[in-house]
Amino acid sequence: MFKLDSGNLTGKCLISSPYMEDERFHRSLIYICSHNKDGAMGFIINKKIEEFSFADLAGQLPIKAFNFSQEIDLHNGGPLEKIRGFVIHSTDYVKADTVVIDNNIAISSSLDIINDIAFGMGPRDNIIALGYSSWRPQQLEQEIMHNDWLIADPKPELVFRTKDEEKWEKALNSIGIDAANFSLFSGHA
After folding, report:
1. What pTM did the predictor assign?
2. Which of 15, 68, 124, 162 could disulfide-link 171, Cβ–Cβ 3.0 to 4.6 Å?
3. Contact criterion met (CB below 8 Å) for 141 and 4
């Protein structure tokens, strides 16, 4: 399990507690792309946007036509700057603006990656997120201490290949927790 004193959650997943009070993050799985003394930033990776499609997004960008042979989902990356797009993706695709987080996951935000995804030339695995989540210095650490978040190592299978509606529970299972047995209160022996 992650130790808070190691001080860095970059490349980890946050699993919202079953008792998360903030509705924006209820049953959320968040991939943390940056965590340092200045705060943290990440993306919700398990909540699709239903009211706005990739075709809608492409229509607002200089993408003239694209391959509809595969369905391309958009995700609600978080409550901040919902008009900004980011792509969480596999490291088989790396361009000049790509930030490689670890051996399996990278982040890009250029129009090039959206265009490449549209034409079937993008990364093997990807999640397109509109918006992001962030925390001021020490805020995330405090929320973890208050049991708002649990921490898991992101496996590509969980991040990219698990159905969105199953990610939260599978993430809990990956750290040995059954959501049905999760308790709000912890006891002391």
Report:
1. 0.86
2. 15
3. yes
